[in-house]
Amino acid sequence: MTDREKMLELLDEFKDSIVKLMDEREGFNSEAEELRTARREVEEKAWAAEEQVKKLTTKLEKAETDLKAAKEEVTSLRAKANEAEAGMSEAQETLQRERDELRREMDEITGQLTRVSELYREASAEKEAMEQKVDVSDLLAIYITLIETVFYGKPHARILYTLHDVKTAITRKNITSSTGIQPAAVLKAVHDLAAADLVSYDENSQEVVLTKDILRKS
After folding, report:
1. Most buried residue among 102, 123, 137, 188 by CB atoms closer than 10 A?
2. Are the C-beta atoms of 175 and 199 separated by less than 8 Å?
3. What is the per-residue pLDDT across 32-85, written as a single tens digit (0 to 9) for each?
4. Which tops the pLDDT comparison, 55 or 147?
5. What is the C-alpha separation between 99 and 120, in angstroms, rounded?
6. How high is the mean pLDDT of the chain?
7. How far apart are CA 84 and CA 78, in angstroms?
């Protein structure tokens, strides 16, 4: 083989190598473009995911804030409910004590009035048999004076005296103003007297009427 032929053969090999290199370069460029495209897609997805995370974080923080506020509101309402319940229980206990005390006073007054009535009947029946003349009216005056002195501060007795004096229906407000007794005490006493069938009380008109004439004044 001549030098010229060898030279041509080398040129052909070199040409083939250049063509092969160019083909490989085009392949590399294509792969690089695909990689850049894939990278852009990954970055876009990462950005979108990051935005989504930010939104979810904001919602979570708001939900936590709302939950905290709701817990504080529940705690406040529970405290108010406990306070109201305690106040109600205390008020009920106080009212019960006052009612029990007024009932005891009413029983005491009723007992005294019953005793006076018995003494009056006894004194009337035994007047002629007594060795020394006794004026029943004087005896009654003594008992009445004792009752007025001892029980004047009792709301039940004062209300009964007031009703015996007027002999007509009288409003609870007028009883309060005429006796000077506290309104709450007047109301309780009126209910106690009504329960004992000594007076009748109309809740609507708030009028009190004497139903049993204890003193039997003319």
Report:
1. 188
2. no
3. 778 888 888 888 888 888 888 888 888 888 888 888 888 888 888 888 888 877
4. 55
5. 31
6. 77
7. 10
Q: Which residue type, as a one-letter code, is found at position 162? A: T
Integer Cα distance of 109 and 115 in angstroms = 10
* Residue 102 to residue 108: CA distance in whole angstroms: 10
Confidence tier at 153 by pLDDT (50, 70, 90): very low
To which residue do tokens 């069938």 refer? 197
In 3D space, the residue among 201, 209, 196, 212 whose CA is nearest the CA of residue 163 turns out to be 209
